[in-house]
Amino acid sequence: GTQQGPPPRRKGNPRLLFMGLRRCGKSSVQKVVFQKLPPADTLYLEATNKIEKASMQSFMNFESAEIPTQLPVLSPEYEHATVFTNIGAVIWIIDSQDEYLTSISELLRVAVFLAENYPRANLEVFIHKTDGLSEEYKYDTFREVRQRVQDELSDFGYGDRAVSYYQTSIFDHSIFEAMSKVIMKLLPQLPAMETLLTKLCSTCRIQKAYLFDTVSKIYIATDTSPTFLKDYEVCSDYVDVIVDIKQLYGWLDAPKDAPKDGSQPQNEDPELESEGTQPKIEGVQPKSEASPSKSGSSQPKSAPDTNMLGESMVTFDKGGDNYMYAREISNSLSLICLMGQGSGPDKRKLIEYNVDILHDALLQVFKV
Amino acid sequence: MERGKRQKQRKVLLMGRSGAGKSSMRSIVFSHHNAKDVRRLGATVDVEHSNIRFMGNLMLNLWDCGGQDSFVESYLTNQRSHVFTHVAVLIFVFDVSSRDAASDMLSFASTIRALHEFSPNSKIFVLIHKMDLVPADQKTAVFQEKSDGIRATCEEEEFLPEQVGFWATSIWDQSLYRAWTQVIYFLVPNAGTIENMLRKLADLLDASELILYERTTCLVVTHISRGRGKKNPFTDRFERLTSILKTHKHSMARHTGTMVSEVSFTELLVKSGKFMFFITRLTENTNLAVVMPNDEGAFNAARVNVSLAKGEFAYLDIIEKKGKEAQRT
Ligand SMILES: Nc1nc2c(ncn2[C@@H]2O[C@H](COP(=O)(O)OP(=O)(O)OP(=O)(O)O)[C@@H](O)[C@H]2O)c(=O)[nH]1
Ligand SMILES: Nc1nc2c(ncn2[C@@H]2O[C@H](COP(=O)(O)OP(=O)(O)O)[C@@H](O)[C@H]2O)c(=O)[nH]1
Ligand SMILES: [Mg+2]
Q1: How far apart, in Å, are the Cα atoms of A20 and each of A73, A148, B162, B212, B313?
Q2: B318 pLDDT higher than 90
Q3: Which of A307, B4, B6, B18 shows a CA-CA span of 20 to 30 A to A232?
Q4: B2-187 has CATH 3.40.50.10490 classification
Q5: Which residues surround ligand 3, an ion (CB under 5 A)?
Q6: Does residue A34 sit in the same domain as residue A86?
Q7: Which CATH number fits the domain B191-328, given the four candidates 3.30.450.190, 1.10.10.1400, 3.40.47.10, 3.30.390.50?
Q8: Predicted pLDDT at A291
């Protein structure tokens, strides 16, 4: 593209490896998260026989690969550096609806292998397919898996290795929340972003603030208050509302003669256009063939005029105390806030002012 | 009194063979389920009635008629006049994946024969349903072929071509809302008056589009497009908006742990680049979506102006309230 100024991104793109037993859900997770495959369509996925890569261009370049179960990547004969060099995290997926003891012993092999060969890679365990399970069963399985893995790792002498556990399903937001947490850990800018968001929350009485990668709906930072799946869900759905409405009316921003029949309205992010692997932005509903596929707003990238950046608000009560607030930080980053008591209409100016400051600070963070 | 009541209540029959998808459709459009939930629905026994109030005096009186053969038999015989009199619209649902298209057509023919007997001026909306099961490259051809066959049957039963409309639908996308929006538009008694009022409002706000929709179903009642708004390449934007707003309702209901029917927002605002989009309450049952230039001053004026216009629009609802009170006394 014809881009001026440094792009607010890049610096160690997180590389992820998906591993686990057969049919545990590796392909499904990779395809749902990075390629926006509708979860129900995963029923038709075939077994993976070779290393399958996926990537997504957005705020940053997410890269991942699925290791087929039968590939002996841990065996001494295998040239493991081809797979593991520069890896940020290994995500081990356990099918919680299936017998999982075999999976745990395989997981331990991986954990030991990583500790010995790639000690800087994070190990993340997804206790997966939790949809349709009772809360109790979910909780028990989660505890049991964690306990066993920790005990045996200690026995191997690696009790101090940090392993994180998540309950996930592709049929709800939990997979996106887990992926967010996995990716966040790999961003060197995280502490700075967290500090900025926490400060914003306390100054403006914001209950919870997330910084979203707008396209993937993975959040790359949040304030330090406790996170709840419920809050992430509602914010993530709100991003959909905004993106969808912008898509329907954003073409108004295009030059007068742009959206003539045949010609596509302009793309928002020149970076997106140049790469082949970008996902469909609309994941929720199949859209009619007649519609152009992208939003048409074309914001001047070099000079971020804050007035031109998108902003949205949805209010749930007459008093105006109960609302959500959204603000675009760049073409691919959005700030979404759940507002708390005492952030009502009289505080709007203060909030806008502070969000402007945050906006500039974040751009600084990514310039480094 | 009685006559007045009947004019406002519009009877809509929802018919089609068992398993065609009628109740799924109804529960998505009117009862706040989403496509995943409806797989658990059982077969409808006899007729399930529901009333839905729209703007401008419209009370939709929906008859969801169970499609098992024994029920259909009874609609056509002992219940014949009860079911088929005073019908404004018949929505007939065909399952595009049905293995028994010949019987479907026979059932349809005897249904519209009864309809012609008791409500000859009614309108028929034929829905060719479950289109998601047809491969994308065959959709147009399949739809064309099915509707041609059905059209011929309608003519045999003496319905005029303009009395019959055809829609391809699926519960898995917004095509369902597209068809239902057309039904509503056909039924709203004073659409012309409402549109005139909206057009004036649009001029006043310098809006490129105004969309009036019913608050609980999020179905679009009508819309006005002006200037560049007329050139919007997204011709399916109204049913997409329904879908966006419905999804948002579900999301909010999950978040707050309340019923979908109880969630609503007071205002939604999206500003981006040159446009501004906002939604606000217009009447008891309707919301208004406004698309206008992104300008803080114009927006504040627009809010005030919409607020002032509420009185005028409320008038359309008030007639009904008065009528209702009169009926009670
Ligand atoms: N219920 C449920 N099923 C899931 C979930 N994720 C994946 N599945 C199903 O699990 C089955 C297997 O998924 P795959 O992604 O093909 O499994 P895999 O691990 O890649 O299998 P291999 O190709 O043999 O490596 C599919 O039928 C998926 O639909 C989930 O979150 N919940
Ligand atoms: N694939 C698909 N299935 C549908 C669709 N609409 C309904 N169904 C399914 O068809 C079955 C029968 O639907 P139902 O509404 O109970 O039929 P009814 O007997 O006419 O009321 C259910 O399993 C629905 O989930 C659709 O658009 N696509
Ligand atoms: Mg039924």
Answers
A1: 12, 17, 60, 51, 61
A2: no
A3: A307
A4: no
A5: B 22-23, 44
A6: yes
A7: 3.30.450.190
A8: 34
Residues A107, A196, single domain; the answer is no
Residues framing ligand 1 (Cβ under 6 A)? A 20, 22-28, 42-43, 45, 47-48, 68-69, 128-129, 131, 169-171
> How is residue A37 written in tokens?
């495959």
Residue labelled with tokens 């303009």: B162
Do A196 and A341 share a domain, yes or no?
A: yes
Which chain A residues contact residue B299 at CB under 8 A?
A: none
Chain A window 249-268: which residues touch B at a Cβ cutoff of 8 Å? 249-253, 259, 261, 265
Predicted pLDDT of residue A270: 36
Whether residue A173 lies inside any domain: the answer is yes
Does residue A315 or residue B53 have the better pLDDT? A315
Q: Are B236 and A291 in contact (CB under 8 A)?
A: yes
pLDDT at A311 over 80: yes
| Beta-carbon separation of A314 and B234 below 8 A | no
Instruction: Tell how strand A15-20 and strand A89-95 pair up.
Output: parallel
- Select the residue from A241, A245, A301, A321 to test the B interface by mutation, using most B Cβ atoms within 10 A: A245
Contact A316 B237 (CB under 8 A): no
Contact (Cβ atoms closer than 8 angstroms) between residue B194 and residue B216: no
Q: In this structure, are residues B22 and B14 in contact, taking their beta carbons and an 8 Å threshold?
A: yes
Q: Which residues does ligand 2 sit against, CB inside 6 Å?
A: B 16, 18-24, 38-39, 41, 43-44, 67, 129-130, 132-133, 170-172
Mean pLDDT of chain B: 88
Q: Which atom of ligand 2 is nearest to the CA of B27?
A: 15
Number of domains in chain A: 2
- Listed residues A184, A206, A225: the one ending a domain: A184
A contacts of B135 (beta carbons < 8 Å): none
Query: What CATH number does residue A178 fall under?
Result: 3.40.50.300
- Domain shared by A158 and A207, yes or no: no
Using CA positions, which residue lies closest to atom 17 of ligand 1? A23
* Amino acid making up residue B54: F
Q: Is A32 part of any domain? A: yes
Among A184, A207, A230, the domain boundary falls at A184
Residues B262-288: pLDDT tens digits? 888 889 999 988 899 999 999 888 899
Report the residue of chain B nearest A236, measured CA to CA: B251
A311 in contact with chain B, both atoms CB, cutoff 8 A: yes
Confidence of residue A293 (pLDDT cuts 50, 70, 90): very low
At which residue do the structure tokens 């997504």 appear? A56
A2 domain-assigned: no
Q: Are residues A171 and A209 in the same domain?
A: no
In a domain, A25, yes or no: yes
State the pLDDT at residue A60. 75
Write out the residue range of the structural domain in which residue A228 sits.
190-367
pLDDT in the model for residue A241:
94
User: Mean of the pLDDT values across residues A37-52?
Assistant: 88
Here the tokens at position A332 are 């691919």
A289 and A158 part of one domain: no
Sign of CA dihedral B32, B35, B41, B46: positive
- ipTM of model over 0.90: no
Q: Which residues of B touch A293 (CB under 8 A)?
A: none
Binned at pLDDT 50, 70 and 90, residue B36 comes out as: confident
Q: What percent of chain B has pLDDT over 70?
A: 92
pLDDT over 90 at B259, yes or no = no
Ligand 2 pocket check: which of B38, B70, B129 to mutate, most ligand atoms within 8 Å of Cβ?
Answer: B38
Which residues of B are less than 8 Å from A233 in CB distance?
A: 251, 254-255
Contact A313 B269 (CB under 8 A): yes
Nearest to B272 by CA among B289, B294, B290, B251: B294
Among residues A292, A308, A242, A266, the alpha carbon closest in space to that of B232 is found at A292
Residues A116 and A240 in one domain: no
Q: Do A199 and A224 belong to one domain?
A: yes
